[in-house]
Amino acid sequence: MYKPILCLDFDGVCHSYTSGWKGADVIPDPPVPGLFDFLERASTVFDIQIYSSRSNQPGGIEAMQKWFCEHYTIWLYQYQPEPEKRHSVEPSWIKFPTEKPAAFITLDDRAITFNGTFPDVDSLRSFQPWYRSG
Predict the structure, then answer these.
(1) Distances in Å between the alpha carbon of 121 and those of 48, 85, 103, 118, 127?
(2) pLDDT, tens digit, 9 for 90 and up, residues 5-33
(3) Beta strand 105-107 with 94-95: parallel, antiparallel or unpaired?
(4) Quick check: 6 and 104 in contact, CB under 8 A?
(5) CA dist 104 to 1, 11, 21, 97, 116, Å?
(6) Do the Cβ atoms of 39 and 24 come closer than 8 Å?
(7) Rounded to a whole number, what is the largest CA-CA distance in the chain?
(8) Which of 72, 64, 56 is nearest to 25 (CA)?
(9) With DSSP H G I counted as helix, E B as strand and the rest as coil, what are the percentages for the chain, rounded to 5?
(10) Tally of CA atoms within 13 A in the half-sphere of 35 that contains its CB
(11) Closest CA relative to residue 36, chosen from 96, 101, 81, 80
């Protein structure tokens, strides 16, 4: 069955990124709240692919995969206590491409939807991701 690609940026969308950049293979922070609930629902409709600036750096994909395994396991045992509801501890239904996929839609904390009109350059310079604004 064909599923359209949903591409998620890793830092700031999956990984909370509160510590900032520490290197492609260093991922110290917890997930953004609601991540795994969302992914469970979205995976029934979409081909989930995680892409990041980490994706083409040495150790980046492996670090993201390890982070997902660790945090997905914690989520499963905390929020899905019935064994029959648990998936494999490794979320093998999540893909980690080395190049940005041609996605149906992308979730990214550092993007603005282009609506056919170019934004004011000064407004772009003052852009803040959700975790820095407020």
Answers:
(1) 32, 49, 26, 9, 10
(2) 999 999 999 999 999 999 999 999 999 99
(3) unpaired
(4) yes
(5) 16, 20, 28, 15, 18
(6) no
(7) 53
(8) 64
(9) 25, 15, 60
(10) 26
(11) 80
Cα–Cα distance, 107 to 93 (Å, whole number): 18
For residue 7 the two structure tokens come to 């591409």
Q: Which residue has the tokens 């999956």?
A: 14
Contact 39, 47 (CB under 8 A): no
Structure tokens at 37: 């609930």
Read off the pLDDT of residues 26-67 as tens digits, 9 standing for 90 and up: 999 999 999 999 998 999 999 999 999 999 999 999 999 999
What b/e sequence results for 96-134 when a residue is b if at least 16 CB atoms lie within 10 Å of its CB, and e otherwise? beeeeeebeebebbeeeeeeeeeeeeeeeeeeeeeeeee
Cβ atoms of 32 and 13 within 8 Å: the answer is yes
Could you give the CA distance from residue 54 to residue 11 in angstroms, rounded to a whole number?
Answer: 9
